[in-house]
Amino acid sequence: MAPRPHWLFGDQLGPHFIDPRHGGPDARAPLIMIEARSVLRRRRFHRAKAHLVLSAMRHRAAELGDRVTYVRAETYAEGLERALGHPSSRSAQEGRSGSRLTVCHPTSRRALDFARTREGVEVLPAKGFMVSHDDFAGWAGRGGGQGLRLEGFYRWVRGRHDLLMDGDEPVGGRWNLDHDNREPPPRGQDTLDVRRPWQPREDAIDEEVRHDLDRWERDGDVSFVGRDGPRRFPATRREALSALRHFITHRLPDFGSQEDAMLAADPVMSHSLLSAPLNLGLLDPAECVERAERAHRAGDAPLNSVEGFVRQIAGWREYVWHLYWHFGEDYRHRNALRHTTPLPDWFLDLDADAVTANCLSTVLAQVRDTGWTHHIPRLMVLGSRALQDGWDPAAVTDWFHRCFVDGYDWVMLPNVVGMSQYADGGLMTTKPYTSGGAYIHRMSDLCGPCAYRPTDRTGDRACPYTAGYWAFLHRHRDRLAANHRMARAVKGLDRLADLPELLDTTARRGGTPP
């Protein structure tokens, strides 16, 4: 009996998504891929993100050859109808009753709902993650969840997958080496002394994608933000493996100590740049952390670097994926702080030149030019600005989704609503993550050339982050005073003799670029 066709979404591009083991599709199943223009019309995506996704999809289709039916359609519904009318798909359905098509569990609720409501579509278990939905539900329901905090989940994953373990104990005797990984950047250096990141070479498929995007934009079919090119992230499995090998060999040893630091001329620092290929499904998370662990056990990378990398992938990435499903659809509408200010046009348009604050201008330019920054600029520069100014968390989530090459609904919803904007009121994190300019000054070289001073709360040189931090605490004083991690900071408001002037300054600034 001929196998049913299998549908591959654009973030299911690695070999593990068509592996028949562990609930995958039949090894002989014909494959379907759909490039739906409506996805690009729904949102104003970053141009580099649109390029990367389309390039990766078209590269994968070229690799699969005659096995795949690749349809360019207006919508997924239209694409499925056309694909299932293809001769190979029709023959694969002969003699079958019930489901006519399989698909691995999609990564967004919208896509999952679409698949489940289509007649004849069977949704197979999710792939591309280390922890299954059932296993996460078991952990969360056993009381081991400890309020669903990351640390408990991370230790459970480490033990379950025997990652950086010596028997029942963590390698080196400590689970968490964050304290060792918070060093500021080296003073007097514009860049770190590490090998530069792996860089792909564009090919004819990239040229075709860029031509199509130019034409669609010129015709008014779609609209983008940001700049495109040259492509910086892997679009094929071969490229992704090259990027992983390069990072493990040349960059992982220096990753840990300054993973929270920022340098204006070195936006990548020692970070892996593997989030994009991971989220496209080109890499499997298990192979990434296992290679990192092997490097440590071989003496090629220090424990703090390896533990920090493992924590990002086996800890945070898995945690965010499962919270996306665990919290339910209503989570995206959470707004515990009642922030409703619309995002300003200069932020929506990535207009870095309109911004005076050097940290924000620099990071916004990085997003404009590459569609990427590492986690600290995302959280403590971009997210902190949104939180301090009271921007609508749903709009902030959408912005991060659209403007980052590694941004997907499952990625950004918990990261923004829970971590960055504290819009869930503490379901995910124990406190809001924002700070004054002193933190940015300590962890970067961004404050030196700035027109503002990180120590100034008022006056012409008042740092928008320092003033914004105290204004934020004042605005939410009653709520935050009851938070044991914020109570001391809130009491500091009573020592600010210039608080009225500070509040007046921030109110007058309004939505103008800081």
TrEMBL record:
Record's Gene3D superfamilies?
1.25.40.80, Deoxyribodipyrimidine photolyase-related (1.10.10.1710), DNA Cyclobutane Dipyrimidine Photolyase, subunit A, domain 3 (1.10.579.10), HUPs (3.40.50.620)
* Residue span of region Disordered: 82-101, 174-194
Q: Which UniProt keywords apply?
A: Lyase
- Residue ranges annotated as compositionally biased, kind Polar residues, are 88-100
Q: Which InterPro entries does its entry note?
A: Crypto/Photolyase_FAD-like_sf, PhrB-like, Rossmann-like_a/b/a_fold, UV-DNA_repair_photolyase
Q: Could you cite one Gene Ontology molecular function of this protein?
A: lyase activity
Q: Where is the composition biased (Basic and acidic residues)?
A: 176-194
Q: What is this protein called?
A: Cryptochrome/photolyase family protein
